[in-house]
């Protein structure tokens, strides 16, 4: 039976279907940038929650069209940090009849590692740059060290911070660097000149540090329309690409890495494997 999995992040909500661990080839079925974390103070903002619910309504139509069941949703940084986060998930459960849970930062890091580890890798250092947080996991076959840092591309855009004060006590690097998450996906799309999502066109893209620094210099002098054209794959990310690049290059410099490989397998796959008791 095909099941549905929904990742409700700070910036983006994603939907994926799978019936087993050999059934991840489709990748994302639907994705909506809703900026759930925008306008949040102690609580998620009403307008942000409305955008999220509108996206979930569209997802629900596709889920019903495919006859997928059960549906499992997990939420990350924005919902985790909001006083009304659990109440919002209760509303989602009541409205759609889905199972909904909040992941801790450490769970995010672990699940991202488990999903990305489906590739042909041994020891890896995994960087997951989301909208509200960044997770780093290190290990060989299993995550041995997992850490979550409270800054992602959207949050860094809205409230810039000194990265050296955020990314303290980084896990020691092991093996090659892999990257997942929205920032890495848009950079992989730019690197491979991908205009429309197809997992095979993105997975395994190599992002060289020299190329990323050059891209950063180009982006710094672009206006928003030029950035939207550059980010044609996901133009809604145009206003946060600078912050995403800053975070990624800071981490690559700290790890003295000349390149990073993008994995299109990540947290949703890890969450599915954990749900099925395969990890």
What this model shows, in words?
With 279 residues, the chain is of the alpha/beta class. It folds into two domains: 3-102, Nucleotidyltransferase, domain 5 (2-Layer Sandwich); 105-267, Exopolyphosphatase. Domain 2 (Nucleotidyltransferase, domain 5). Helix content is 42%, strand content 22%. It has twelve helices and eleven strands. It has helices at 46-66, 77-81, 85-96, 105-116, 153-158, 163-166, 182-191, 199-202, 209-220, 224-230, 241-254, 267-275; strands at residues 3-8, 12-18, 28-33, 71-75, 99-102, 123-129, 134-140, 142-149, 176-180, 206-208, 259-262. It has a six-stranded mixed β-sheet with strand order 8-7-6-9-11-10, sandwiched between helices. Helix 9 (209-220) packs antiparallel against helix 11 (241-254). It is globular, with a radius of gyration of 17 Å. The mean pLDDT is 95.
- In the sheet with the most strands, the strands line up as 8-7-6-9-11-10
CATH class of the largest domain: Alpha Beta
E-strand count = 11
Structural class, please? alpha/beta
Uncertain residue ranges? none
Quick summary:
The chain has 279 residues and is α/β, with parallel strands linked by helices. The protein contains twelve helices and eleven strands. The strands form two sheets. A six-stranded mixed β-sheet has the order 8-7-6-9-11-10, sandwiched between helices.
């Amino acid at each position: 039976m095909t099941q549905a999995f929904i990742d409700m992040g700070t910036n983006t909500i994603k939907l994926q279907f799978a019936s087993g661990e050999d059934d991840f080839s489709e990748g994302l079925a639907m994705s909506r940038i809703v900026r759930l974390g925008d306008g949040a103070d102690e609580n998620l903002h009403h307008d942000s929650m409305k955008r999220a619910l509108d996206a979930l309504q569209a997802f629900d139509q596709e889920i019903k069209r495919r006859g997928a069941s059960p549906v499992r949703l997990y939420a990350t940084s924005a919902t985790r940090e909001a006083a009304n986060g659990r109440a919002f998930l209760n509303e989602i459960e009541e409205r759609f009849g889905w199972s909904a849970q909040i992941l801790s930062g450490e769970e995010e890091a672990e699940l991202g590692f488990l999903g990305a580890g489906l590739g042909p890798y041994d020891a890896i250092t995994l960087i997951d740059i989301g909208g509200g947080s960044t997770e780093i996991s290190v290990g060989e076959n299993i995550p041995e060290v997992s850490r979550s840092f409270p800054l992602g591309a959207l949050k860094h855009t809205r409230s810039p911070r000194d990265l050296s004060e955020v990314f303290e006590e980084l896990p020691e690097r092991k093996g090659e660097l892999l990257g997942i998450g929205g920032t890495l996906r848009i950079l992989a799309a730019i690197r491979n000149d991908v205009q429309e999502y197809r997992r095979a066109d993105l997975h395994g893209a190599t992002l060289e540090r020299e190329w990323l620094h050059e891209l950063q210099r180009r982006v710094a002098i672009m206006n928003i329309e030029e950035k939207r054209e550059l980010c044609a794959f996901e133009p809604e990310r145009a206003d946060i690409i600078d912050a995403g690049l800053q975070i990624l290059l800071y981490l690559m410099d700290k790890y003295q890495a000349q390149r990073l490989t993008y994995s299109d397998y990540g947290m949703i796959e890890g969450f599915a494997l954990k749900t099925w008791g395969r990890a």
